[in-house]
Amino acid sequence: MDQMLRLRRRRPTALATTSVTGLLAEPARGPAEPAGVVFVHGVRTSSEIWTEQLAHVRAAGHPAVAIDLPGHGSRRDERFTLERAYAVIDEAAASFAPGTPVVVVGMSLGGYTSLAYAANRPDRLAGVVACACSADPRGKPVALYRDVAHVLVGARRRVRALVSTLARTGRPLPPGSLAALQLTGAGHPGDGDDRSARPSWDVVTQVLSELAGRSSRADMRAAGVPVWLVNGSRDHLRLDEKRYLEAVPGTALVVVPGAGHDVNLEAPAAFNAALTRALRDMSRGARLGA
Fold first, then answer.
1. Which domains, ranges and CATH numbers included, belong to the chain?
2. β-bridge partners, 102
3. Which one is predicted more confidently, 59 or 7?
């Protein structure tokens, strides 16, 4: 397998590049009890994005469940709040056998939610794998897309057409605009328009209202559990990944070359390799600083 992953840890001068095969083969230290895995999806998607990962970790002996966040999938009629999202993750974690260490794997919105959950429930987790969420939601782009979503619920096509028009005229988009487009589920201005089955933009306003002004780096520090960051190299939501990596000693970063925001769907083999290694580390149950 010739696809390469870059694995970086927050240690002095610790930088390694390895193949997917090498990452899988790297041995874990000490005995490990298979962790239970809770998968948390991104905005305007659902638990269905985790099909390949569920099969992968279950085959390795991990109990696993993928949830639908409030406002999505089977909970589409619920309002999104972080507190309700925490309760849903609690329910999923409680489905595992007593004493099972729990790892939460979150994508985009799910990553931000997972880090916030870890800060609020630090004693319940063995670790977090946070994907496509290495940029704090903040500033004018977040407010812009929150307001646009509020005014133009159900009119995503017109919003994207407007952004594309600005791009074609050569006028630069505000810093963070592409990241905001991905966070809201609107995608890149050049993407196709085949997402009609997604939840409405009502949930986007709810999500951005909950996340605006939060610092996931502060959540990482408050949680005190191991965190692996997994990003596609073409993802605009990795713009602060160096700061995330430096937020807490022991944090690991994996960058998947050629992948975009939906790294688990675009590069499932590479993503699963990183996930396997993260679960090996976290199943040992060590907390940071222990």
1. 4-135+214-283 (3.40.50.1820), 139-207 (no CATH)
2. 36
3. 59
